[in-house]
Amino acid sequence: MKDRHKAFANLLVRRRWMLYLSLSVLLAVVVCGIFAPYLAPHDPSFVDFSHKLESPSWDYPLGTDQLGRCLFSRLLYGTRVSLGLALLIVVACLLSGLLIGCLSGYSGGWIDHAVMRVCDAVLAFPSLILAISLIAVWGAGWKQMAIALVIVQTVYYARFVRGLVINLKQQTYVTAARVCGTNPVRILMRHIVPNMLPPLLVVVTLEIGWVIMDISALSFIGLGIQAPTAEWGAMINEGKSFIRSHPRLMIAPGAMIFVMVALLNLVSDAFGENKGFGSPLRRKSKST
Amino acid sequence: MSLLIADEITKTYSATGWFRKQTPEGKGVREISFTLEEGSCLGILGESGAGKSTLGRIVLGLLPPDSGTLTFRGIDLYRSGRSERKQWRRDIQVVFQDSYSAMNPRMTVQDIVAEPLRNYERKSSKEERSAVAELLELVGLGADDMTKRPKQMSGGQLQRVNIARAIALKPKLIVLDEPVSSMDMIIQKQILDHLKELKEKIGTAYLFISHDISAVQYFADRVAILDRGTLEVRESFDPFT
Ligand SMILES: Nc1ncnc2c1ncn2[C@@H]1O[C@H](COP(=O)(O)OP(=O)(O)OP(=O)(O)O)[C@@H](O)[C@H]1O
Ligand SMILES: [Mg+2]
């Protein structure tokens, strides 16, 4: 009995440790992204054919690509694009999902029915395919990609938020607030939304990882961020012709994506376990 | 004129949805009639599942009845306009059984007690603080409890906070849905005594819902017995007649 207790405590401590480690690595990457102009040894888009496809050296920590651009600098600047855009998209999704989910879940009735049917319709398509078709209509580019991703993902958020709202709406303190005259908007702002932040935090950290992958995938097939801009997915695309001769051109950005997504998953899991709920939002398997 | 008149109120829970079977008879309340005078206390006695909370929710305006009328100070509540409804919200307040879950765990006692005041009155933060302190004192708590959160208080203290919130607007009627059922005898008596005192001070009427015969005997002026959805108002307190 005591042993089991100890093992459990150990596990918790180890988990904590892992959480802090993941968080600090993530933070380090974010800081590197923010200070990229100061940290990068070279201009990420400076073309220099005299240095093309060089191996790592003191001057070029990760070597150069086919146009002689510094790979390390490009990775650093790519952090800004991938993480920054992912964050932007997730925040936009969160806000619109909160709005729609709260409206739908709190009002119930025909509004709820209508909103949920629209969501079902969107959910019937694999999300990346839907995003691709939207971009196909609007044309490639990072703005179109961001808007398409926001539209597609908002549906997941809206459904998730709606479920939480319906659950929290039944809490006695919400009834008590209604009785003492609090209006629905105030009830949502003061009683419901604050109490769903912990599960939302879990989802958001996980989602940032997913969105990084989506951005990279769309940029890889040329629909997202366009060529001269350093972005991980686009970098993999550019590097693919050199997969045999210079695999590091693909491996480096690929590793960045992998590490970021893995860390965000770890953090999300740890948050979830900490708060006593597992990963609440399982997305359908995606073809990334 | 009576404060509250319930006339033949019926509310049965029917299963909604296309494929579910109708729930069997006896869920909810049927043809309930009673009157409640200003400043008095009616005890509603009934066993678990008899429909006591259902009745409370109807009186609070949270659950429209299938049929029957509820008249509060001469106004038919479920067929009234917006402004009357707003006044009604103000004049009927509630104390629930589970004191902890009746409060948002993220809010402080001050925010909880001040919530009804903020909804109806414009007060500066200083006025609000003194109003909350006064209310807390009325229910036997100190002003230093104001900054606490629900997790930091005991069940009895929490129920006092709930009562402070309920009396904040000086309502005409408070629905007490088993307010002391989860407490031990000494605290029960303390809180009931406090409620009695408040009744004298601010002149509210109570609808006291309970399954505890002795508590009802101690607390209520009249008693009505709710048995499987039907209500019988007794003139005498002897529950076995
Ligand atoms: N929302 C609902 N939907 C369907 N049936 C319900 C609902 N709420 C209550 N009931 C049923 O109505 C009956 C009366 O419930 P109510 O909560 O009024 O009982 P109660 O007298 O307050 O019991 P307790 O002493 O346990 O609180 C119960 O049989 C219950 O199962
Ligand atoms: Mg009940």
Helix content of chain A: over 70%
Q: How would a crystallographer describe the biggest sheet of chain B?
A: 6 strands, mixed
What is the CATH H-level superfamily of chain B?
P-loop containing nucleotide triphosphate hydrolases
Bound molecules: adenosine-5'-triphosphate, magnesium ion
Q: Sheet bearing the most strands of chain A, described? A: none
Rg of chain A from C-alpha positions?
Answer: 22 Å
CATH class of chain A: Mainly Alpha
What is the averaged pLDDT score of chain A? 87
Q: In which range does the helix fraction of chain B lie?
A: 25-40%
Domain ABC transporter (chain B): 4-241
GO molecular function, one term (chain B): ATP hydrolysis activity
GO biological process, one term (chain B): transmembrane transport
Protein name (chain B): ABC transporter ATP-binding protein
How would you characterize this protein structure?
The complex is a heterodimer of chains A (288) and B (241). Chain A has a single domain (63-275), classed as MetI-like (MetI-like fold). Helix content of chain A is 72%, strand content 0%. The model of chain A is unreliable at 277-288 (pLDDT under 50). Chain A has eleven helices and no strands. Chain A starts with a helix and ends in a 13-residue tail after the last helix. Chain A has helices at 2-34, 36-39, 71-107, 109-123, 127-138, 142-169, 172-179, 184-192, 197-220, 232-239, 248-275. In chain B, the strands form two sheets. In chain B, strands 6-7-8-3-9-10 form a six-stranded mixed β-sheet, sandwiched between helices. In chain B, strands 2-1-4-5 form a four-stranded antiparallel β-sheet, covered by helices on one side. In chain B, helix 3 packs across helix 4 (125-138) and helix 4 packs across helix 5 (155-167). Classes of the chains: A mainly alpha (288), B alpha/beta (241). Adenosine-5'-triphosphate is lined by residues 13, 27-28, 46, 48-54, 211 of chain B. Adenosine-5'-triphosphate binds at residues 13, 27-28, 46, 48-54, 211 of chain B. Chain B: Keywords: ATP-binding, Nucleotide-binding, Transport. Chain B: InterPro entries: AAA+_ATPase (IPR003593), ABC_transp_ATP-bind (IPR050319), ABC_transporter-like_ATP-bd (IPR003439), ABC_transporter-like_CS (IPR017871), P-loop_NTPase (IPR027417). Chain B: GO terms for molecular function: ATP binding; ATP hydrolysis activity. Chain B: This is ABC transporter ATP-binding protein.
